[in-house]
Design a protein that fits this description.
By secondary structure, the chain is of the alpha+beta class. About 50% of the residues lie in helices and about 20% in strands. It folds into 3 domains: about 1-120, 2-Layer Sandwich (Alpha-Beta Plaits), CATH 3.30.70.1050; about 155-260, Chitinase A, domain 3 (Roll); about 275-435, Trigger factor, domain 2, CATH 1.10.3120. The strands form 4 sheets. Strands 7, 8, 9, 10 and 11 form a 5-stranded antiparallel sheet that branches. Strands 1-2-4-3 form a 4-stranded antiparallel sheet. Strands 5-12 form a two-stranded antiparallel sheet. Helix 8 crosses helix 11 (about 350-380), helix 8 crosses helix 13 (about 405-430) and helix 12 (about 385-395) packs across helix 13 (about 405-430). It is elongated.
């Protein structure tokens, strides 16, 4: 079997394969034997149909077509193995199948051409010393104070209040009855589910629809008040969204929170530490590490964006299709986690539209991936079995019990190799660290400037059109 290889655009490899006379004859005989075993012809038992009868009933063209199809498939598998071709799949027959069938004669050579997707060649410009801008996330000591204050509130003791009126942060026990105001006039109608007794509510912003908590503040135990409270336009219950309600509220009990002292006893109650100083030190370390991780993630994101701009690679269709599958699968999983029925949402038409819409994202993802893998290859970076096992140990509580270990190892090795490439780039990059929010503000300003320029251009075109119209309709005196 003679094989000629030719590089084709879009990361394809062309193969011209010449089938030997022996293979040609063997394929034909095998198809006849297979048809003979399967054919059901009156007057003959299966497997006992004479060759001449089989050829007459089945037709020579049908048998030749089956033989050519088998030849193509079997030869491709053999060529890929013998020539060590890193085929990605997506074989395409370049030759006309009908012409191959018409040319095919058992015992005579047959030549056909196919193309197959192969890993692309990657060209990468100088990637040492990339200049990037990234936002630096700084640890704020106030985060520790806020965390401790929230834990204090959780540990608070509730003390009954008798004399004073309700204040913010109190706990109120109330009875209430709600009614919907009839827009057309008439008596307010009962609010479905809008009635409760001994209802406990914390008098904090956001605990109920706007105006409800605010209306309770200032009331004393035993007092009743009627509140007009509008439901917001985006209220989840569409039947109530935008409507106005009247709530009659009676305060039955009031309690205030008595917060524990911020001391060693408190630290022992909310953590495994014995002293408040130890707890603070641990929290400071955690928040600092979190800030460092976020800063590192920002730098890596900027590096990935930078290196994607200097890579040249033709992405084969097979890999684009696989990446599109991944994007849609992740999207479906996220929607399913939100309780959305993805089977109804993802119809044949919507899937086709989403694949088309997601294609630029898929290509960008692959370009970034190939760029990082190329850095790893050029710099001889690698991931050890011990490192993969350590990562699996970190993830073990989140992995399903029936996880495919080989696929997991392969995925983790690829991901960790990219991480090493990013670390390598980071060590050698020229990084300008910016205050948090800088890049977002710059992007917003640029978008506003572009919108203003576009509006001005549209206004100018409109004015020009008016001038032309006037000149066209103005008659000389």
């Amino acid at each position: 079997m003679k094989v000629t290889q030719e590089k084709l655009p879009a990361s394809k490899l062309g193969l011209e394969i010449e089938v030997t006379p022996d293979m040609s004859q063997k394929a034909y005989e095998q198809v006849i034997q297979q048809f003979s075993r399967q054919a059901s012809i009156p007057g003959f038992r299966k497997g006992k149909v004479p060759r001449s009868v089989l050829l007459q009933r089945m037709g020579t063209s049908r048998i030749k077509a089956a033989a050519v199809e088998d030849l193509i498939q079997n030869c491709l598998e053999k060529v890929v193995k013998e020539e060590e071709i890193p085929a990605l799949g997506n074989f395409q027959l370049i030759s006309s199948f009908d012409e191959l069938v018409s040319q095919y004669e058992p015992g005579e050579p047959l030549v056909f051409s196919v193309s197959v997707d192969v890993p692309p060649e990657v060209t990468l410009s100088d990637y040492t010393g990339l200049a990037i801008r990234a936002e630096e996330i700084k640890y704020d000591p106030a985060d520790v104070d806020q965390f401790l204050e929230e834990r204090r509130k959780e540990q608070a003791t509730l003390i009954p209040v008798e004399e004073r009126a309700a204040q913010a942060e109190d706990i109120a026990i109330v009875d209430y009855v709600g009614k919907i105001i009839n827009e057309a006039g008439g008596e307010p109608q009962p609010l479905p589910g809008g009635e409760a007794e001994n209802f406990q509510i914390e008098l904090s912003e956001g605990r109920f629809i706007k105006g409800f908590v605010e209306g309770i503040i200032g009331l004393k135990v035993g007092e009743t008040k009627e509140l007009n409270v509008p439901f917001p336009e985006d209220y989840p219950n569409e039947d109530l969204a935008g409507k106005e309600a009247i709530f009659t509220i009676t305060v039955k009990e009031l309690k205030e929170k008595e917060l524990p002292d911020l001391d060693d006893d408190f630290a022992q109650a909310v953590s495994e530490y014995q002293t408040l100083a130890e707890l603070r030190e641990s929290l400071e370390k955690q928040y600092q590490e979190k800030a460092d991780r976020e800063t590192k993630a920002n730098k890596h994101e900027a590096l990935v964006e930078a290196i994607e701009k200097i890579v040249e690679v033709e992405i084969p269709e097979t890999l684009i299709d696989r990446e599109l599958d991944n994007i849609l699968q992740q999207s479906m999983m996220q929607l399913a986690n939100y309780g959305i029925d993805v089977k109804k949402l993802y119809t044949k038409e919507t899937v086709a539209a989403l694949r088309q819409q997601s294609q630029p994202e898929a290509i960008t993802n692959l370009r970034k991936s190939f760029a990082l893998k190329e850095v790893a290859a050029r710099e001889s970076l690698s991931v050890t079995t011990e490192e993969i096992n350590a990562r699996i140990e970190e993830l073990k509580d989140r992995l399903p019990p029936d996880v495919d270990r080989d696929r997991l190892n392969s995925a983790l090795e690829s991901e960790m190799l990219k991480e090493k490439a990013l670390d390598w780039l980071e060590e050698r990059a020229n990084i300008e660290l910016l205050p948090a929010g800088t890049l977002e503000a710059e992007a917003a300003a640029a978008a506003a400037e572009a919108a203003a320029a576009e509006a001005k251009l549209a206004e100018g075109e409109e004015s020009a059109g008016e001038v032309v119209e006037v000149e066209a309709t103005d008659s000389p005196e």
